[in-house]
Specification:
The chain has helices at about 1-30, 55-65, 80-90, 110-115, 145-155, and strands at about 70-75, 100-105, 125-130, 135-140. It is an alpha+beta fold. The protein folds into two domains: about 1-30; about 55-155, Glutaredoxin (3-Layer(aba) Sandwich), CATH 3.40.30. It is globular, with a radius of gyration of 20 Å.
Length: about 160
């Protein structure tokens, strides 16, 4: 009986320790690294005028000095695909006011940009002020009303 109680205690201690490690890792990585000065010109990617990497696109967006809607996803994520459809439905209403960046974290340049931010799940969206400061973020799939709510808050914060 004593050994069964000891085993239960050890299992509980192990679970608590694992949880504590996860919390420390999450809290320790909760702030994105500061954005470095953006390059003054955009790199050319596959289409004329498109930056070659997600990092270059982000840096160019920061340099433009407009609010940014940054959405991270995966190519094989159903929720990410559904959210992208919703964003494309809403985005025309904000085209002249907000820069939208869709970044796939399963691509090398997407992983590189994702390292600047702290998140564990996709889709994850960041709503970034014109000065590069993060106003808010959201993890999960937003509907059209949710996207509008975040974008309206971002624009109201100017």
């Amino acid at each position: 009986m004593q050994s069964a109680r000891n085993r239960k205690a050890l299992v509980l201690i192990g679970v608590a320790a694992a949880f504590a490690v996860l919390v420390v890792v999450k809290v320790g990585a909760s702030a994105p690294t500061p954005v470095e000065d953006a390059a003054s010109t955009r790199d050319t990617g596959s289409a004329a005028g498109e930056p070659a990497t997600a990092v270059a696109a982000y840096d160019a967006a920061i340099a433009e000095g407009r609010p940014i809607f940054l959405n991270f996803g995966l190519s094989y994520c159903a929720n990410c695909a559904e959210m992208e459809e919703t964003i494309q439905e809403v985005l025309p209403e904000y085209t002249d006011e907000v820069i939208y960046l869709h970044v796939m974290t399963d691509e090398p340049s997407g992983r590189e940009l994702a390292q600047r931010f702290a998140f564990q799940f996709v889709p994850t969206s960041y709503f970034i002020r014109a000065d590069g400061e993060i106003l808010d973020s959201y993890t999960g799939k937003l509907d059209a009303a949710g996207v509008r709510q975040y974008l309206d808050a971002l624009l109201a914060d100017r």
